[in-house]
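anyone seen this seq b4? input:
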Amino acid sequence: MGIAIAALTGSQKATAQAPTLSVDPSRLPRLGTVDERFQSYNLEMVEVTGGRFWKPYRASASAPSARGADNAGNVPAGSNPDLYAYREPIDLSNSRLRILAAALAPAYMRVSGTWANTTYFAENDETPATPPNGFRAVLSRERWKAVIDLARAVNAEIVTSMATGPGVRDAAGRWQSDQARRFFAYTRSIGGRIAAAEFMNEPTLAAMGGAPDGYDAAAYGRDFKAFVAFIRTSEPDVMVLGPGSIGETAAPQSSRPSFLSTRDLLAASGSGIDVFSYHHYGAVSQRCAPGQTTSEAALSEAWLASTDQTRAYYQSLRDEFAPDKPMWLTETAETACGGNPWASTFLDTFRYLDQLGRLARAGVKMVAHNTLAASDYGLLDEKTLQPRPNYWAALLWRRLMGTTVLDAGVHDGMRLYAHCRRGVRGAVALLAINTDRTNAATLRLPVTSERYTLSADHLQSAGAKLNGTALDLGPNDDLPRLAAVTSPPGSIEIGPATITFLTVGDAKNPACD
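predicted toks r here
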């Protein structure tokens, strides 16, 4: 009997059985809340402009079309160009893309990335054929309008970052707000809105992002203060995010000679942020560092817990430099450098959902997956825009998990998270994740529940099943019906290497009223 069927019926025994975990959903206490746009996503700036991004493992580089030829040579400073492949600008009017993104609403759509640091925003409708001096790419007004149109169509609020390379600096190397001012003004002129902005993408790796030679924490502090002054004066409704650091815990980059520590950046930049932002990748993919990660470790506690380690590190800095400010994880995925080959498979769905559960429980208010539809870690296949397993996981989270976080405790043998059920007063939604590849786990509930079990034929499957039925789009890109199976009060078996959402409509939990 297959894993999916065993997980669904709960009536036949797996090869071994973990101790039973008993939970009363009516008594789970409230921990806190997350943003209504808690589960969000990134759209890389290089996707918007066209250019060279992480090369998929099964792809070869394509020649640039006339539409994006001006950005064809744009890769991060010091990078191996063989790791990248050219992409034409993504079609943001694509019906399937819009249907699938809208189903995750409401969300934040972060349009940023390393490439954004050196992207020139066109002064008018005449887009330059090549990037001006000091820039590596060009964002036309037409392409930015397409981003705004997409955000409006899918109920996404835009988060972005500024160009910070040599092209926006004066003779003394100081950041100037001219391009940022033009960028915000154009956005408003066409009815768009930028909800939040970081100054620079990943300032700990400023040199890789195109900062001037010798750029240090003092220079960052000077520039960040100028950015904050510009926002407060010209764009007072925009939230200032910062610092957006990476590389100090998991997948450490701090051995780089040009690395800037977050502590030094915060000490130099002073107070001024509205939200403390950071990035997390558990490691660097085999594309950039062969052997650093393995698929065998993808379900291990050491791997899954790396998100807690990074959060705890940055939370300690938040507490010291920006106490009481909310925390947002504005960029994360399976691994940096485009993800491993298994980032696009069911194997990574455990990390995806476990990360959301852990961070909501720890008080992080927003998590933005990288990316919506680019490279191996995209929620959607970048060529076909077909959903990958993580997309189906994201959709179930969106449908079931509300913004009030409950304390389901920490347990051996099963990862269990609880929220108030989205849109149903008094109801509770549970997320039970069994990362054991051979042993089932048992959850005992005193009330009837509705069950949604995600599984796959094998862990590195490109597809996923819900309660034993394959998840696929309909002929007109209609989303499938996410049908639950009713489980009576008593024991529920969570099969090996499966993920189960359970909703308890009659929980009558006072925290969910």
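The chain is about 25% helix and 25% strand. Residues 50 and 89 are 4 Å apart (CA to CA). kinda curious what u guys think
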